[in-house]
Automatic annotation (TrEMBL):
Name of the protein described by the UniProt record: 7-carboxy-7-deazaguanine synthase
Residue ranges constituting the Radical SAM core domain according to the UniProt record: 21-236
Known cofactor(s): S-adenosyl-L-methionine; Mg(2+); [4Fe-4S] cluster
Key words, A-Z: 4Fe-4S, Iron, Iron-sulfur, Lyase, Magnesium, Metal-binding, Queuosine biosynthesis, S-adenosyl-L-methionine
Gene of this entry: queE
Enzyme class: lyase
Pfam entry (one): Radical_SAM
Cofactor: how bound: Binds 1 S-adenosyl-L-methionine per subunit. Binds 1 [4Fe-4S] cluster. The cluster is coordinated with 3 cysteines and an exchangeable S-adenosyl-L-methionine.
Pathway membership, UniProt: Purine metabolism; 7-cyano-7-deazaguanine biosynthesis
Protein family: Belongs to the radical SAM superfamily. 7-carboxy-7-deazaguanine synthase family.
PROSITE patterns in alphabetical order: RADICAL_SAM
S-adenosyl-L-methionine keyword on record: yes
Keyword tRNA processing set for record: no
Binding site for [4Fe-4S] cluster: 34, 38, 41
Amino acid sequence: MSGKIPVLEIFGPTIQGEGMVAGQKTMFVRTGGCDYRCAWCDSAFTWDGSQKATPMNASTIMEELERIGGERFSHVTISGGNPALHTGIAALVKLFQEKGIASAVETQGSFWQDWLLAVDEVTVSPKPPSSKMGTDWSRLDTFMKRLAEEQAGHHSLKVVIFDEKDLAYATQVHERYPDVPFYLQVGNDDLEALEPARLRDHLLEKYEWLVAKVMEESQLNDVRVLPQIHALLWGNKQGV
Ligand SMILES: C[S@@+](CC[C@H](N)C(=O)[O-])C[C@H]1O[C@@H](n2cnc3c(N)ncnc32)[C@H](O)[C@@H]1O
Ligand SMILES: Nc1nc2[nH]cc(C(=O)O)c2c(=O)[nH]1
Ligand code: SF4
Ligand SMILES: [Mg+2]
Protein backbone atom coordinates (compact mmCIF):
# COMPACT_ATOMS: atom_id res chain seq x y z
CA MET A 1 0.00 0.00 0.00
CA SER A 2 2.91 2.38 0.56
CA GLY A 3 2.70 5.32 -1.81
CA LYS A 4 -0.82 4.41 -2.89
CA ILE A 5 -3.68 6.82 -2.34
CA PRO A 6 -7.23 5.50 -1.76
CA VAL A 7 -9.26 7.36 -4.40
CA LEU A 8 -13.02 7.57 -4.11
CA GLU A 9 -13.66 9.69 -7.20
CA ILE A 10 -11.95 11.91 -9.76
CA PHE A 11 -14.10 14.47 -11.55
CA GLY A 12 -14.18 17.78 -13.36
CA PRO A 13 -13.53 20.25 -14.68
CA THR A 14 -16.05 22.03 -12.48
CA ILE A 15 -15.91 25.14 -10.35
CA GLN A 16 -14.62 25.16 -6.82
CA GLY A 17 -17.91 25.81 -5.06
CA GLU A 18 -16.51 26.81 -1.67
CA GLY A 19 -14.18 29.11 0.18
CA MET A 20 -11.01 30.99 -0.69
CA VAL A 21 -10.95 30.29 -4.43
CA ALA A 22 -14.70 29.86 -5.00
CA GLY A 23 -15.45 30.02 -8.72
CA GLN A 24 -12.01 28.67 -9.72
CA LYS A 25 -12.16 26.15 -12.56
CA THR A 26 -10.71 22.94 -11.13
CA MET A 27 -10.55 19.16 -11.24
CA PHE A 28 -11.29 17.19 -8.03
CA VAL A 29 -9.54 14.17 -6.57
CA ARG A 30 -11.54 12.83 -3.60
CA THR A 31 -9.79 10.44 -1.24
CA GLY A 32 -11.44 7.77 0.90
CA GLY A 33 -11.30 7.59 4.70
CA CYS A 34 -11.82 10.16 7.45
CA ASP A 35 -10.82 10.39 11.11
CA TYR A 36 -14.04 12.37 11.76
CA ARG A 37 -17.72 11.41 11.50
CA CYS A 38 -19.48 14.76 11.15
CA ALA A 39 -23.22 14.50 11.79
CA TRP A 40 -23.97 16.44 8.58
CA CYS A 41 -21.10 15.28 6.33
CA ASP A 42 -22.12 15.76 2.69
CA SER A 43 -19.41 13.29 1.63
CA ALA A 44 -20.13 10.46 4.11
CA PHE A 45 -19.75 8.00 1.22
CA THR A 46 -15.98 8.49 1.66
CA TRP A 47 -16.05 6.80 5.08
CA ASP A 48 -19.40 5.02 5.74
CA GLY A 49 -18.61 1.94 3.65
CA SER A 50 -21.27 2.69 1.02
CA GLN A 51 -18.64 3.27 -1.70
CA LYS A 52 -15.24 1.67 -2.19
CA ALA A 53 -11.97 3.54 -2.74
CA THR A 54 -9.43 2.39 -5.34
CA PRO A 55 -5.75 2.46 -4.27
CA MET A 56 -3.91 4.47 -6.94
CA ASN A 57 -0.42 5.90 -7.28
CA ALA A 58 0.29 9.51 -8.23
CA SER A 59 1.04 8.87 -11.90
CA THR A 60 -2.16 6.83 -12.39
CA ILE A 61 -4.19 9.63 -10.81
CA MET A 62 -2.49 12.11 -13.15
CA GLU A 63 -3.35 9.93 -16.16
CA GLU A 64 -6.97 9.76 -15.06
CA LEU A 65 -7.13 13.54 -14.56
CA GLU A 66 -5.76 14.00 -18.09
CA ARG A 67 -8.11 11.37 -19.53
CA ILE A 68 -11.17 13.11 -18.05
CA GLY A 69 -10.05 16.74 -18.16
CA GLY A 70 -7.91 16.71 -21.32
CA GLU A 71 -6.43 20.16 -21.89
CA ARG A 72 -9.29 21.80 -20.03
CA PHE A 73 -7.70 22.29 -16.61
CA SER A 74 -4.72 23.86 -14.83
CA HIS A 75 -5.91 23.48 -11.21
CA VAL A 76 -6.67 20.41 -9.07
CA THR A 77 -8.44 20.29 -5.70
CA ILE A 78 -7.81 17.35 -3.38
CA SER A 79 -10.63 16.69 -0.93
CA GLY A 80 -12.08 13.71 0.89
CA GLY A 81 -12.59 12.33 3.44
CA ASN A 82 -9.46 13.71 5.02
CA PRO A 83 -6.67 13.82 2.39
CA ALA A 84 -4.14 14.55 5.14
CA LEU A 85 -4.35 10.90 6.26
CA HIS A 86 -2.38 9.90 3.15
CA THR A 87 1.40 10.30 2.84
CA GLY A 88 1.25 9.20 -0.83
CA ILE A 89 -0.21 12.57 -1.82
CA ALA A 90 3.33 14.02 -1.59
CA ALA A 91 4.16 12.46 -4.98
CA LEU A 92 0.94 13.78 -6.52
CA VAL A 93 1.58 17.35 -5.36
CA LYS A 94 5.13 17.08 -6.73
CA LEU A 95 3.76 15.95 -10.10
CA PHE A 96 1.40 18.93 -10.16
CA GLN A 97 4.33 21.27 -9.50
CA GLU A 98 6.39 19.70 -12.30
CA LYS A 99 3.48 20.12 -14.73
CA GLY A 100 2.69 23.71 -13.68
CA ILE A 101 -0.71 22.67 -12.30
CA ALA A 102 -1.95 24.65 -9.29
CA SER A 103 -3.23 22.62 -6.33
CA ALA A 104 -5.66 23.05 -3.46
CA VAL A 105 -6.53 20.88 -0.46
CA GLU A 106 -9.56 20.66 1.83
CA THR A 107 -8.87 19.29 5.31
CA GLN A 108 -10.12 19.71 8.86
CA GLY A 109 -6.68 20.34 10.41
CA SER A 110 -6.54 17.20 12.57
CA PHE A 111 -3.53 15.53 10.86
CA TRP A 112 -0.38 17.13 9.51
CA GLN A 113 1.52 16.15 6.33
CA ASP A 114 4.66 17.93 5.09
CA TRP A 115 3.28 17.88 1.53
CA LEU A 116 0.75 20.53 2.66
CA LEU A 117 3.62 23.04 2.46
CA ALA A 118 3.79 22.57 -1.33
CA VAL A 119 0.04 23.06 -1.91
CA ASP A 120 -0.99 26.44 -3.35
CA GLU A 121 -4.26 26.81 -1.42
CA VAL A 122 -4.91 24.96 1.83
CA THR A 123 -8.40 25.27 3.30
CA VAL A 124 -8.58 24.31 6.97
CA SER A 125 -12.10 23.60 8.18
CA PRO A 126 -12.41 23.00 11.95
CA LYS A 127 -15.73 21.54 12.97
CA PRO A 128 -18.40 23.42 14.96
CA PRO A 129 -20.61 21.87 17.70
CA SER A 130 -23.42 20.86 15.28
CA SER A 131 -21.01 18.35 13.70
CA LYS A 132 -20.79 16.50 17.08
CA MET A 133 -17.00 16.50 16.67
CA GLY A 134 -14.60 18.10 19.16
CA THR A 135 -11.63 20.33 18.32
CA ASP A 136 -8.16 19.47 19.62
CA TRP A 137 -6.96 23.06 19.92
CA SER A 138 -3.31 22.26 20.51
CA ARG A 139 -3.20 20.10 17.36
CA LEU A 140 -4.91 22.85 15.39
CA ASP A 141 -2.47 25.45 16.81
CA THR A 142 0.49 23.38 15.63
CA PHE A 143 -1.13 22.86 12.23
CA MET A 144 -1.85 26.58 11.72
CA LYS A 145 1.60 27.57 12.95
CA ARG A 146 3.38 25.37 10.42
CA LEU A 147 1.25 26.73 7.58
CA ALA A 148 1.89 30.32 8.65
CA GLU A 149 5.64 29.82 8.99
CA GLU A 150 6.45 27.42 6.16
CA GLN A 151 3.74 27.16 3.50
CA ALA A 152 4.77 28.59 0.12
CA GLY A 153 1.17 29.27 -0.98
CA HIS A 154 -1.94 30.62 0.74
CA HIS A 155 -4.26 29.18 3.34
CA SER A 156 -7.57 30.02 4.95
CA LEU A 157 -10.00 28.89 7.62
CA LYS A 158 -13.56 27.91 6.74
CA VAL A 159 -16.24 27.07 9.30
CA VAL A 160 -19.62 25.63 8.33
CA ILE A 161 -22.54 27.23 10.19
CA PHE A 162 -25.86 25.59 11.06
CA ASP A 163 -26.91 27.60 14.14
CA GLU A 164 -25.95 30.25 16.70
CA LYS A 165 -23.70 27.89 18.67
CA ASP A 166 -21.72 27.25 15.49
CA LEU A 167 -21.41 30.99 14.98
CA ALA A 168 -20.03 31.41 18.52
CA TYR A 169 -17.52 28.62 17.78
CA ALA A 170 -16.54 30.29 14.49
CA THR A 171 -15.93 33.57 16.34
CA GLN A 172 -13.64 31.71 18.73
CA VAL A 173 -11.66 30.22 15.80
CA HIS A 174 -11.38 33.61 14.07
CA GLU A 175 -10.13 35.28 17.27
CA ARG A 176 -7.55 32.54 17.83
CA TYR A 177 -6.07 32.94 14.32
CA PRO A 178 -6.85 36.60 13.50
CA ASP A 179 -4.36 36.87 10.62
CA VAL A 180 -5.79 33.96 8.62
CA PRO A 181 -8.43 34.77 5.97
CA PHE A 182 -11.71 33.56 7.43
CA TYR A 183 -14.74 32.11 5.63
CA LEU A 184 -18.18 31.26 6.98
CA GLN A 185 -20.08 28.70 4.92
CA VAL A 186 -23.79 27.94 4.85
CA GLY A 187 -24.52 24.45 6.21
CA ASN A 188 -26.62 22.18 4.01
CA ASP A 189 -29.08 20.43 6.34
CA ASP A 190 -31.08 18.73 3.58
CA LEU A 191 -28.70 16.12 2.17
CA GLU A 192 -31.66 14.01 0.99
CA ALA A 193 -33.17 16.73 -1.24
CA LEU A 194 -33.47 15.44 -4.79
CA GLU A 195 -34.82 18.60 -6.41
CA PRO A 196 -32.02 21.20 -6.92
CA ALA A 197 -34.53 24.08 -7.33
CA ARG A 198 -36.11 23.44 -3.91
CA LEU A 199 -32.78 22.96 -2.18
CA ARG A 200 -31.56 26.21 -3.81
CA ASP A 201 -34.43 28.23 -2.28
CA HIS A 202 -33.84 26.62 1.10
CA LEU A 203 -30.06 27.22 1.06
CA LEU A 204 -30.50 30.81 -0.08
CA GLU A 205 -32.81 31.42 2.90
CA LYS A 206 -30.13 29.99 5.16
CA TYR A 207 -27.52 32.20 3.44
CA GLU A 208 -29.71 35.26 4.09
CA TRP A 209 -29.99 34.28 7.77
CA LEU A 210 -26.21 33.82 8.08
CA VAL A 211 -25.41 37.11 6.33
CA ALA A 212 -27.80 38.97 8.66
CA LYS A 213 -26.22 37.35 11.75
CA VAL A 214 -22.69 38.22 10.65
CA MET A 215 -23.69 41.83 9.94
CA GLU A 216 -24.75 42.21 13.59
CA GLU A 217 -21.50 40.87 15.04
CA SER A 218 -18.60 43.26 15.71
CA GLN A 219 -16.19 40.36 16.20
CA LEU A 220 -16.89 39.19 12.64
CA ASN A 221 -16.03 42.32 10.65
CA ASP A 222 -13.19 40.89 8.58
CA VAL A 223 -14.81 37.70 7.27
CA ARG A 224 -16.35 36.39 4.06
CA VAL A 225 -19.75 34.68 4.01
CA LEU A 226 -20.44 32.20 1.22
CA PRO A 227 -22.88 29.47 0.23
CA GLN A 228 -21.73 26.23 -1.44
CA ILE A 229 -22.12 27.36 -5.07
CA HIS A 230 -22.16 23.78 -6.36
CA ALA A 231 -25.10 22.96 -4.05
CA LEU A 232 -27.00 25.96 -5.44
CA LEU A 233 -26.31 24.86 -9.01
CA TRP A 234 -26.54 21.09 -8.80
CA GLY A 235 -28.07 20.22 -5.42
CA ASN A 236 -26.77 17.09 -3.68
CA LYS A 237 -25.45 15.47 -6.86
CA GLN A 238 -22.13 13.64 -6.43
CA GLY A 239 -19.18 14.26 -8.77
CA VAL A 240 -19.85 17.91 -9.59
C1 LIG B 1 -16.51 16.92 2.74
S1 LIG B 1 -15.28 17.88 3.50
C2 LIG B 1 -13.77 17.03 3.04
C3 LIG B 1 -12.52 17.69 3.55
C4 LIG B 1 -12.27 17.61 5.04
N1 LIG B 1 -12.65 16.36 5.61
C5 LIG B 1 -12.98 18.75 5.77
O1 LIG B 1 -14.02 18.49 6.39
O2 LIG B 1 -12.49 19.87 5.68
C6 LIG B 1 -15.18 19.35 2.48
C7 LIG B 1 -15.87 20.58 3.03
O3 LIG B 1 -17.27 20.35 3.01
C8 LIG B 1 -17.82 20.88 4.19
N2 LIG B 1 -19.12 20.25 4.42
C9 LIG B 1 -19.36 18.95 4.68
N3 LIG B 1 -20.67 18.72 4.84
C10 LIG B 1 -21.29 19.91 4.67
C11 LIG B 1 -22.66 20.33 4.72
N4 LIG B 1 -23.64 19.47 5.00
N5 LIG B 1 -22.93 21.64 4.49
C12 LIG B 1 -21.93 22.52 4.22
N6 LIG B 1 -20.63 22.19 4.15
C13 LIG B 1 -20.30 20.90 4.38
C14 LIG B 1 -16.77 20.54 5.22
O4 LIG B 1 -16.92 21.29 6.41
C15 LIG B 1 -15.51 20.90 4.48
O5 LIG B 1 -15.24 22.27 4.62
N1 LIG C 1 -17.83 21.93 -7.07
C1 LIG C 1 -17.43 21.48 -5.88
N2 LIG C 1 -16.79 22.31 -5.04
C2 LIG C 1 -16.36 21.80 -3.84
N3 LIG C 1 -15.65 22.43 -2.90
C3 LIG C 1 -15.37 21.57 -1.90
C4 LIG C 1 -15.91 20.33 -2.22
C5 LIG C 1 -15.68 19.15 -1.37
O1 LIG C 1 -16.50 18.23 -1.36
O2 LIG C 1 -14.67 19.12 -0.69
C6 LIG C 1 -16.55 20.46 -3.45
C7 LIG C 1 -17.28 19.61 -4.34
O3 LIG C 1 -17.56 18.43 -4.10
N4 LIG C 1 -17.68 20.17 -5.53
S1 SF4 D 1 -14.17 15.95 8.46
FE1 SF4 D 1 -14.90 16.37 6.37
S2 SF4 D 1 -15.09 14.37 5.32
FE2 SF4 D 1 -14.75 13.97 7.50
S3 SF4 D 1 -16.79 13.62 8.30
FE3 SF4 D 1 -16.35 15.82 8.59
S4 SF4 D 1 -17.05 16.90 6.73
FE4 SF4 D 1 -17.01 14.69 6.30
MG1 LIG E 1 -18.53 18.64 -1.04
